[in-house]
Amino acid sequence: MTTTLYVGNLPWATTEEELRRAFAAHGTVHSARIITDRESGRSRGFGFVEVADEDADRIVSAMNGQLLGGREITVNVAQNQRR
Fold it and tell me: The RRM domain covers which part of the protein (predicted)?
């Protein structure tokens, strides 16, 4: 099983591959996705990383508050909420 993590305050220029690599240093990453504006295609400054359940707590502890591209990111377990 997997756990989805919310990642906020991402630098606009961060790529999904950079996000995946940053998190993979702390556990198994299944996917990384950066949310973009539908019209402009620009990053909205947040994304989601899907990780192995057994690694989720360790990854949140390791990555929350870390610098990525010069910005302090926010990491927590994503809420299951769809519009």
Answer: 3-80
